[in-house]
Write the structure tokens for this entry.
Amino acid sequence: MATNSVPERRGEIASARAVFAARLTELYAAAGNPPLHRVAAAADERARAARPAGRHSGVPVQRISDWRAGRNVPARFETFEPVLLTLVDLATARSGAVAAELVRRSAWIQCWDAARAEPDTGGGRPRPAVNTVLRRDVGVFVGRERELAAILRAMEAASGAPVHTVDGMAGAGKTALATRAAHLLADRFPDGRFFVALDAHTPGRPVVTAFDALGTLLGNLGIDPAHIPPTVEGRRDLWQGWAASRRVLLILDDARDAAQVEPLIPAGPHCSALITSRRRMMDLDGAVPISLGSLDPAEAADLFRVAAGRAAAGPEADAVATLTRLCGQLPLAIVLLAGRLAHHRAWSVTDLATELAAARHRLGELQAGDRAVRAAFTTSYADLPPGRRLLLRRMSLHPGADLDAWAAGALTDLPTAESRRELDALYTDNLVQETAPGRYRLHDLIREFGRELAEADPPADNRRALHRLLDYYRATGAGADRRLSPPPRPPARIDVAGTDPAPVREFADQAAAVGWLRLERANLLSCADHASGHDPARAIELIEVLAGLLERDGPWPLARQLFQRTHDLAQHLNDGFGIATALANLARISQVTGEFTDAGAGYRAALARYREIGDRRGEASMLTNIGIASWRDGDRIGAREVLSEALAGHHALGDPGGEATTLINLAITVWLLGHRATAMEYFRTALTRYRRMAELTGEDSTGLDNLGIGRWLTEYDADVPYFYLETLALYRDIGNRPGEASVLTNLGIVRHRTHQYREALALFRQALAIHREIGSRNGEAIVLLNLAVSYRTCGERAEAHERFEEALTAFRELGDRRGEAEVLTEFGFFLHEGGDTGQALAAFTAAADLALLTGNEAQHARARSGLALCGAPWEIPMDAATG
């Protein structure tokens, strides 16, 4: 064996281990001293190509460095050979002629055999042991104090410290948290503090196996490499045996999975381990999980200011908030951006915020040197199987904030059960966040990352995916809306825009339908906004399915805007059905806000459109609605005529639901005209039609709802209580919960007017419970107001005050300005009675202003009487005076 390049030590021939190290150093120099990570990556690729899948483990950079420095020799030649061949190729390509002993395999085997066989005496001295191997503590630590405190408490407990796993998406600050905890706990673990980088997601480096990590740990203990066992099991037992009676803290950073870390975790009663990973290690028994999400806005702003070295007070504080929001409150992104600002003292925070907001690809701005948010995400994405990658890209196309397995299945054209499993897997990988059971969202930066990747997908595939999603929401929403909207509702569309078939959810009852619509409301609106500019026909359909929910929950001003948008879009498309439906929905909002004249005019406009397109069902529905608006507007004779025409139309169509609703309004109309017996006959006939509808369709008879009739029976009639009691029994007989709640409300109004206040309270409480059970916000608001007035009359002021405030909140959420004005007026009288003149004055003033805006003269007069009671005149608001 040639040794001419090997140095001698004081005239003695160097050891075989030194010869191996010197020869490797010489070969490394001949290769041009390439970066260690480049050599490791190339050797890893060579080994992957030469060995079967599952039987390869890469060589860490630290291991190559140890071989070259003589601190260690390879345990197996097959582990060393890919590195050797990589260096030989580089050296040959660089200089052509290389010394024979540096390129000949047999010479290297001979050299390695001698080095491996030679005991590692260190020249007669024992190998030094290293018991502290920790990363440098981070200089900036903001926003994880709560998690840090939890780790410190657990590890300082007298009973010993559990294993902790710290998981989170790339860039969440896992390593920083573990490192800070390790430094603070160092005194508690005097026998060893070890940091082992497992490199599951380190670009350019192979994942460190348990075998190699154990070798590094045992080497740190000063164990002769010749005595380190050649198997994982042997190394694990040696490590565990050493740690069993000692106090050791082990940090395992960037772990891939439980199988990688299980052999490394010390089992001694006074040992502890902190494991960081992008995956949730649900299969690591006994570990205490800590999951890191984004920082809250205040923490994110503090981190930015500290890392940038800027106070950022005054106007620049808003710029900091903008920057951290655009960073998704992700620590890595914030630190990288703050670092740029720290090195550009001429830049202002506002300049940087403006630049980032205008950037077409935000991720391109979030990098510094080798550190980049996009690179961190890329390593996580690369670990995913193809189907899961597709799901992440498709999720990024979703116009809304979150989704469930049904929507994910629509995007990927997968069965719901399979998409549910894939979503759960992405959650385990910390690539999606769970907002509620079964519902997931993408972090803002992950969403942008997914959109960048989706740009490389075929545009036609992306369009089909979005069409399936929109059609899923439209079709499922239409079914849910049918559960909500009482007859006579506008007819459903027959021609539906669609490409690939979309899944459709079914709902067993109205409660399930309401729950789904409320849960998906934001998504439906976001999808409608998206479709307005790309696919107007689908936008119209998506807004149409929200009609029942918007009527129920409001806010009604938003409902008006949306229905006006569908009207405009339908006119642009020359969609006669869409125009008619939009007019009907706009009229319905006028009706629920008490604008009956406007409602009647809107229904008549819709009627003309339905007749124009020959839609007889729409025609009959509009006639019924015109009749309802007419009797509520005081035109009882006209109402009876148009309702009779509507009844004939529904009967001819075989529509028992439409018949029943028309009959009940005929009953109300003729009751108000003084024909009590005829009214009860109409009512009983209506109930038979509702039973028939339930038999035919299986739907709840939810349309029989006469909420507010008590307001129209303004003069007490001895027959009124009997009317309500009989209808209450009939509602209960057919299981109509909305109708039952309405009758209880109206009967409570009657009892209150006849001074039976305690009975009224009991009836209102029953009605409130039902409205809350079925999710009727409008009904709840009306009952809360009546409850407040009754409690006030009974002298129960604390209850009355609470109900007034609840009613005011409900009407404001609905956008019902008339209801809000009525509550404020009654609340004002209540407050004045209690001696709170200032609050009463504010309530009366607000009520008078609202009554002026809505044109309700009776409400306005009552509010002004309250102002007079307070000794204050009412002045016309400036906007009303000038408007």
Remarks:
- The chain has 41 helices and ten strands.
- The beta strands are 132-133, 164-168, 192-197, 248-255, 272-277, 288-292, 367-368, 371-372, 433-436, 439-441.
- Residues 1-13, 698-716, 876-883 have pLDDT under 50 and may be disordered.
